[in-house]
């Protein structure tokens, strides 16, 4: 099954002399239950591709689907609701609310959406990211690594169809980064989560099932079951 896809996706910025083509007729299918990494040099279009697949950016041409639903052409309100209900995000900054404890931060997006978390699922997520015993702590009382796990749990809690992670290890030391990647890997293996991760780090990409390589706005190569050596 396909979690997200694009056909002949074009995204350009500006016009005339200053027009930049960030994505140049990209065809892609993101498999459900798989961990996909997007790699490529700076400026190759990684973030733009992720933003277009996640419905965060409008497209200039082509079509994009989340699951079976085409999102190109959706009005802002519907798109906002689709992101809220079906998509999870992990960014470089964890964006935790300082006044809420860990559990409240984890369930906040669902509270806002007026949804009740599935209790068994939530327990599973918290165990998966090793946060038992830390749920009553505020972010300031948690280590950086624990804060990052709260951000991962927050993305997983709502059981999104797909999680987009933009350089999730970008601001972490290598030990915390490796821990983050193990939790992402585990959420795929144990919870069946679908993850798309933008990274420029071959070590991070080696945790994925499939690597897509972008260059100048095109997918120029891909690799299945990568190893760090092969990615390098
Ligand atoms: P990457 O994530 O691979 O570094 P991006 O997707 O951020 O690449 O950018 C792809 C290209 O599009 C780059 O040339 C970048 O400068 C350009 N770009 C990205 N966002 C914008 C924007 N908001 N306005 C103008 N140009 C942009
Ligand atoms: P990356 O690490 O993906 O290259 P950047 O720091 O280049 O990230 O860009 C971060 C965000 O800033 C992008 O997602 C894009 O929306 C915006 N951006 C990137 N390049 C430009 C640009 N040339 N002009 C305006 N906005 C840009």
Automatic annotation (TrEMBL):
Keywords: ATP-binding, Nucleotide-binding, Transport. Residues 4-232 form the ABC transporter domain. This is ABC transporter ATP-binding protein. One of its GO terms (molecular function) is ATP binding. It comes from Streptomyces ovatisporus. The lineage of its organism: Bacteria, Bacillati, Actinomycetota, Actinomycetes, Kitasatosporales.
């Amino acid at each position: 099954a396909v979690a997200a896809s694009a056909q002949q996706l074009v995204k350009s910025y500006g016009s005339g002399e200053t027009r930049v083509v960030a994505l140049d007729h990209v065809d892609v299918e993101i498999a459900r239950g798989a961990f996909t990494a997007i790699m490529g040099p700076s400026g190759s279009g990684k973030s733009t591709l992720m933003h277009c697949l996640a419905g965060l950016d409008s497209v200039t041409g082509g079509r994009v689907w989340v699951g079976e639903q085409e999102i190109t052409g959706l009005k802002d309100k519907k798109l906002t609701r689709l992101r809220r209900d079906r998509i999870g995000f992990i960014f470089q900054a964890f964006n935790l609310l300082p006044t809420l404890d860990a559990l409240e931060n984890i369930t906040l997006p669902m509270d806002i959406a007026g949804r009740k978390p599935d209790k068994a699922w939530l327990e599973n997520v918290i165990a998966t990211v090793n946060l038992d015993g830390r749920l009553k702590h505020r972010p300031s009382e948690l280590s950086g690594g624990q804060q990052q796990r709260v951000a991962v749990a927050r993305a997983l809690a709502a059981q999104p169809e797909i999680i987009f992670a933009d350089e999730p290890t970008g601001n972490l030391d290598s030990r915390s980064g490796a821990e983050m990647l193990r939790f992402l890997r585990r959420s795929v293996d144990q919870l069946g989560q679908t993850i798309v991760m933008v990274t420029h780090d071959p070590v991070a990409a080696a945790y994925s099932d499939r690597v897509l390589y972008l260059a100048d706005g095109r997918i120029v190569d891909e690799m299945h079951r990568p190893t760090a050596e092969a990615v390098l």
